[in-house]
Amino acid sequence: MEYDVAAIEVLEGRDAVRKRPGMWIGSVGERGVLQMVWEAVGRAVNQSLPGRGGTVDDGPGDPFEATGDTGGPGLETLLTSPHAGPDPGGRHAAAVGHPRVGLCVVNALSSRLRAEVRREGVLRAQEYARGVAVAPPATVGPAAGTGTTIAFWPDTEIFETTRYSFAVLAERFRQVAFLNPGLGITLTDERPAGKARAVMFRYPGGVRDFVGALDAEAGALVHQDAIGFERENPRMAGAMEVAFLWSGSREERIHSFANSLATRQGGTHVDGFRDGVAAAVTAYARRRGLLTPADPDPDVARIGVGLTAVVSVKLDRPEFLGATVGLLGNTAVRACVGEAVQEHLGTWFEERPERAAEIVARFVRGVHEE
After folding, report:
1. Average pLDDT of 67-75?
2. Rounded to the nearest 10 degrees, what angle do helices 166-179 and 207-217 cross at?
3. What is the dihedral of CA 219, 220, 221, 224, to 10 degrees?
4. How large is the angle between the packed helices 331-351 and 268-287, nearest 10 degrees?
5. By CB neighbour count within 10 A (0-12 exposed, 13-18 middle, 19+ buried), where does 294 fall?
6. Residue 21: what are its φ and ψ, rounded to 5°?
């Protein structure tokens, strides 16, 4: 048996995607079906973000053919060419799902896809079957407003299931709305006959609203105002949005994100947050004489008791450790977040001495009891 270059099979375009779908979307189960949604929604979200406060369904409308005013390929190219790629990343883009592989993959893995564009007062549409155009883009009629609508049907020849979980979709869209203040996302489920349900996610307060919601869901009896701030720092080539509060709970709940993706294992942004909180608490306690020079610093783990926090960073070049995008590795982020948290929390303590004394006293008592 001989093996030479003639034995190598080169697959391109839709054939490559359909032959090995798991390489593109990770799974042919529910996870892969959800990734198809994240791909389509991610593009819509990023077209809405530049205006800060738009809704996902009122984007500019992608022309089917490339034009000079779009700065990129036309919609028809995006739907058929893997080389067109996904939206560019960076701090000003939100990653709804991972990996980001582009609309061409969604099209190739759908038994049917319909693209509609509302632009310049005209509605145009195009149909595809398993990634192949049925006909050229055609004018359907007049249109009000602008926007692009992508409707697709995952191919039952490829996927083990084509069912979507409303709860999973809703939770992810809610996160994206929290992490991008003012962005509006509507999710409608038309599957129940005569019982369609719709939810709208929009949070002007951003991560502060996020922390308040997490605290309420944990059963907090008394609502506390979240401590929060936003800041850019060129040293880490990005920006941070941080909000947190202490409640009566005994648990620590820190939710972290990088470019709107959840970092479930944490990373340098979470390490920096912990550093900053510990430094601010320790400095305040020593400045107020609550700790003597002989007392050790409060334990970082103890300071986290009852803490609910959201730490979100948006970076031009996020670096993740491992393939799961669960652990952020940008080294400069730790110091930048730590310094910002220490400064902001220290100022907050000085402006609210009664609340500061209440919070810090819990940790100082722990030092004296050890």
Report:
1. 68
2. 140
3. -160
4. 30
5. exposed
6. -60, -30
